[in-house]
Amino acid sequence: MIVVILLAFAAMLVLNLPSLIKNRDFKLIAVYCLFYAASLLFSLLLAFNVKVPSPIIFVDNLFRAIRLSH
Amino acid sequence: MTIEHSKISAGQFMFSIACFLHSSSLLTSFFVPITKQDSWIAHTIAMILCIPLMILYAQLAKSHPGLNLIQINEAVFGKVFGKIISLFYVWFFFTLVSLNMRDLGNFVSKTTMIKTPMPIIIILFILLCVWSAYYGLEVVTRYSTVFLIISAVILLISIIAITGLINPENFLPVFDLPIKNYIQVTHICSTIPFGETVIFLMITPYVDKSQKKLLRYFVGGLLIGGILILLVMLRDIAVLGNTIGYFSLPSFEAFRLGILFQTISHMEIMFSILLIILLYFKISFLFYASMLSLSQTLELKTYRPLLLPCAAFVAVYSIINYQNILIQIKAAQETIPFLWFTLEILLPALTLAVHYIKKSAAKKGNGKEAALR
């Protein structure tokens, strides 16, 4: 599973890297790296069966705490 | 800065709203356990109550011609505060993509492809959505009319197939539940399928030659989509009665019972095909709008290189967002309507109010300057 994830992310890099280098848009490269790193990290955590916190569950708990629920 | 250069017709815009809403037929399981056989009443009330919401969206688009939701936020609240609000919308749109993706994954892995792991279904589907989002708005919305016609035909066939099973007594008793249940379901319906049309404010500048008639198309889309969901609900209640609340997929069960011309059975496969088509449209559109909002908030020149890492992010997000369908349904019934209310109703209303206050202040300022001269 981990090998499949790493291969998929490597393929993604091979597909996108030439156009990113060609454009030389550093803001775009920074945003790309952010999403790439976040999705790679969370995918690996899921593959290792690590419980990843969900932002929607956090908001759900927050709304319940302030009694904003039916 | 404009990232999208293509234009769509007003008809495509309206049918896209209708198709977007109709794809929420799967979500009836969020509220049918609360109002059971009376769900259609609460749904109709929500649909009528959402007409002023469509007026609000159309007015917001009309007051800022050529600007989408992200650009309107910056124009009204200024660069810093506008960007903070826009980031909330970006999160909201990505959450919507992931939630719908999870719904699709759950549906396919529980009904049609039982042995396939859900992540595989999600990954394959998001790749298809990346493909359509890559080609932009025109490709994403092009087939909305065709999808809507196909779904209306399948709905008609399903109604014919279950004619023998319809029992008018299944609608009784009417208004027998506590008033609180009707209010809760009206709240859920108005925020979960109907209020989500706020995302269409991302594409209003790209609707061809009809900026002044936007209200007509917003309301038209709401009514077509809302009536189609209403028909789905009426059909399911007519067949299942007050047992409707016990099924996680009431429409699927209603289709399963249908027999056409005493020979064609197992019609649930038609429901599966229909739902996958509609959810493909909805997720593609949501994904495209999410990418557009992200690139405009961060002032990027294009969103295309970001499609694959964002798709990977959506796939992971859809797996982690809720542990199981029961937790998701509980959240959709209790807290999500309040959260969505903030982003779909409160913030657009505040934006329009601030716009009018600024406009009248500017007028007064101009009047004083003229008097001094």
Describe this structure in a few short sentences.
The complex is a heterodimer of chains A (70) and B (373). Chain A is an all-alpha fold.
Question: What can you tell me about this protein's structure?
Answer:
The complex is a heterodimer of chains A (70) and B (373). By secondary structure, chain A is mostly helical. Chain A has one domain. Chain A has helices at residues 2-23, 26-47, 55-65. The radius of gyration of chain A is 17 Å and the shape is flat. Chain A starts with a helix and ends in a 5-residue tail after the last helix. The mean pLDDT of chain A is 91. With 373 residues, chain B is mainly α. Chain B has one domain (10-356): Amino acid/polyamine transporter I. Chain B contains 16 helices and no strands. In chain B, helix 1 (10-22) crosses helix 9 (144-161) and helix 6 runs antiparallel to helix 13. The mean pLDDT of chain B is 89. The interface between A and B is medium-sized, with 34 and 33 residues.
Write the layout of secondary structure elements.
The complex is a heterodimer of chains A (70) and B (373).
Chain A: H1 2-23, H2 26-47, H3 55-65
Helix pairs in contact in A: 1-2
Chain B: H1 10-22, H2 32-35, H3 39-49, H4 51-63, H5 69-77, H6 79-111, H7 118-134, H8 137-142, H9 144-161, H10 179-194, H11 214-240, H12 250-257, H13 268-297, H14 307-320, H15 325-334, H16 336-372
Helix pairs in contact in B: 1-9, 1-11, 1-13, 3-10, 3-11, 4-11, 4-16, 5-6, 5-16, 6-7, 6-13, 6-14, 7-13, 7-14, 9-13, 10-16, 11-12, 12-13
